[in-house]
Amino acid sequence: MSNTESRAPDFVRATIATEIAQGRFDGRVVTRFPPEPNGYLHIGHAKALCLDFGAAQEFGGHCNLRFDDTNPTKEETEYVDAIQDDIRWLGYAWGDHLYYASGYFEQLYQWAVQLIQAGKAYVDDLTPDEMRDYRGTLTEPGRASPHRNRSVAENLDLFARMRAGEFPDGAKTLRAKIDMASGNVNLRDPVMYRIRHAEHHRTGNAWCIYPMYDWAHGQSYSIERVTYSLCSMEYEDHRPLYDWYCEQLGIFHPQQIEFARLNISHTVLSKRKLLQLVNENIVAGWDDPRMPTLRGLRRRGYTPEAIRDFIERVGVGKTQNLIELALLEHCLREDLNKRAARVMAVLHPLKVVIENYPADQVEELDAVNNPEDATMGTRQVPFARELWIEQDDFREDPPKKFFRLSPGVEVRLRYAYIVKCTSVVHNERGQVIQVNCTYDPATRGGSTDRKVKGTIHWVSARHAIPAKVRLYDTLFLSPKPDEDEDWKTRINPNSLETLTNCFVEPALAHAAPGERYQFERTGYFYVDPDSSTDQRVFNRTVSLRDSWGKIEKQEQG
RNA sequence: UGGGGAUUGGUGCAGUGGUAGCACACCGGACUUUGGAUCCGUUGACGGAAGUUCGAAUCUUCCAUCCCCAGCCA
Predict the structure, then answer these.
(1) Residue pair A452/A418 in contact by the 8 Å Cβ criterion
(2) A488 is known as an active-site residue
(3) Could you say which of A161, A178, A364, A505 has the lowest number of CB atoms within 10 Å?
């Protein structure tokens, strides 16, 4: 934590600090987070969330949560609720400052009338195709609509009738009269209102004309007295438009500061693509643990603390970026290492029989719950003659540097005894199905003077609890799926592997959904909401760093 | 051939005229009853060219490359 605290402030915070010190906005700092309720929040939003809420907090101000619900055809209450839930989970609160752009519809309408009266806005009859044509291109100026010079009286009349519902969808628009030749296309008479005879999730059927985002945006800040509007780079081109609206209206306007949005390797973060993954059943839903949504990450077992730490480390800049997934995983492991209770679980079981251990004997052995945190105490783990160990922990013909169990070799069973492999049982296909060992009673608890290179985990077969384990990997094989010709071509066919034949130690009998554990030597696991006392389900949040896997890879060339 | 933004090691972020630093990744080592954690260490960067200056990643000019913008989406 100390390294992040001493870190230089990002340019956004530095700018705010400077301006506030100079007395701008009388020292007030009010930010806002303005989601459109048409989808779920993802980790990209977390960056904005942490900046908006974080900066406000640090400067003694507050952050408004405002839903930009200006398009009734796409928005739903379901999303409004989910978004609030996700923000709370991430650890932020907006107090009484919950707003909706739809709450400003009447004021916005009055301001539109004001612009018409000032000769700064007009009702247009162009079809979408015609409007595109008149708009020109990036290199050629646009042309004036034939309706651009309607009289104020006619515009007032037409606009009132638009509101009254006299025209069908798309028949007319209200446009700002700015500059059809501007190099900034946003200034070529942008649409302010469109006709949509659609029911709005909050205003119902009160309106049939709805403001465009650009028209609602800046003025909403003005109403809320927001001082800093922190948004992504793509809105830099829109800033002159927001400024124009506020200037024409003569109302307060905030300082907009743009920053680069977050990109992470091996994933996609566009609402459109995420929606597609859900709709095409490539994932099981918005909360599928492979999704980069906050709900998905939550179900995967991520902690809010890890996500916030990640966002802090990523920093804030204006350059296009691609953060390596490894950084996110590092933050996760660091957090989980401190808080997750250790436990033993065997994912791919292989039977071990301790030949010289009495068949009816059971010993309760002491095990540490978290070597990083003594206050988490100890527990007892039952040991008996027949055990399960990990298939990977035994090799009949061990490669170099393999420190685990193999014929004639000694290994430590964690917290139990030193055992030596004496023989192996094969099935008719030659596969190892059982390993026989002898144990050294003098090494109870695992202590010994001999040098034993390997320590492996185990579960007593008689006491083991069956479990289902879901192993997750990245959804995409390519680090930059967005750059692939078709972004879906590099989907990872093995992003989910479900193991149904796993055994966990009895301490997990009462593992409750939402709990996190470290399965020693394997990884961190989250008890899925699907889990019950009849069927335990664990999601692998992230694996432990695996230096043996790395060595093995190198040896194989 | 329009407007806007960007360019520091593999990936990010600092550094705003005076020996280029941090994190992650990588590689190597120490330690270890998790091949985990922890600790130590090694590689490795200022897009290019001119100019200003005693001195430039920082200032100037030109060039190159990348990203965004032509929804009645946000």
Answers:
(1) yes
(2) no
(3) A364
Q: Is the dihedral of CA A69, A275, A86, A545 positive or negative?
A: negative
Nucleotide with minimal C1' distance from the CA of A403 is B35
A261 catalytic? Reply is: yes
**Angstrom distance (rounded) from CA A128 to CA A147:** 14
User: How distant is C1' of B69 from CA of A132, in Å?
Assistant: 14
Query: Along the 557 residues of chain A, how does pLDDT read in single tens digits?
Result: 333 446 789 999 999 999 999 999 999 999 999 999 999 999 999 999 999 999 999 999 999 999 999 999 999 999 999 999 999 999 999 999 999 999 999 999 999 999 999 999 999 999 999 999 999 999 999 999 999 999 999 999 999 999 999 999 999 999 999 999 999 999 999 999 999 999 999 999 999 999 999 999 999 999 999 999 999 999 999 999 999 999 999 999 999 999 999 999 999 999 999 999 999 999 999 999 999 999 999 999 999 999 999 999 999 999 999 999 999 999 999 999 999 999 999 999 999 999 999 999 999 999 999 999 999 999 999 999 999 999 999 999 999 999 999 999 999 999 999 999 999 999 999 999 999 999 999 999 999 998 899 999 999 999 999 999 999 999 999 999 988 778 888 899 999 999 999 999 999 999 999 999 999 999 999 999 999 999 999 999 999 999 999 999 888 75
Whole-angstrom distance, CA of residue A528 vs CA of residue A299:
7
Residue A39 lies in a domain: no
Instruction: Give the amino acid at A223.
Output: I
**A351 assigned to some structural domain:** yes
Give A358's DSSP letter.
-
Interatomic CA–C1' length for residue A18 and nucleotide B71, angstroms: 37
A292 within 8 A of A263, measured Cβ to Cβ: no
- Helix/strand/coil percent split, chain A, to 5: 35, 25, 40
Give the H or E element holding residue A268: none
Instruction: Examine residue A257 and state whether it is found in any structural domain, yes or no.
Output: no
The helix-helix angle for A43-58 and A11-21 (nearest 10°) equals: 20
At position A118, the amino acid (one-letter code) is: A
CATH number for the domain that contains residue A386: 2.40.240.10
Residue A104 lies in a domain: no
Domain count, chain A: 1
Ramachandran sector of residue A416 (left: φ over 0; alpha: ψ -120 to 50; beta: rest): alpha
A271 is catalytic: yes
Tell me whether 0.90 is exceeded by the ipTM. Answer: yes
Count of other CB atoms within 10 angstroms of residue A405: 26
Interatomic separation, CA of residue A12 and C1' of nucleotide B56, rounded (Å): 26
Residue A466's H or E segment, with its range, is strand A465-472
- The three-point CA angle A518-A520-A522 to 5° equals 85
**Containing structural domain, residue A416:** 342-463
| Strands A349-354 and A432-439, bridge-based pairing | parallel
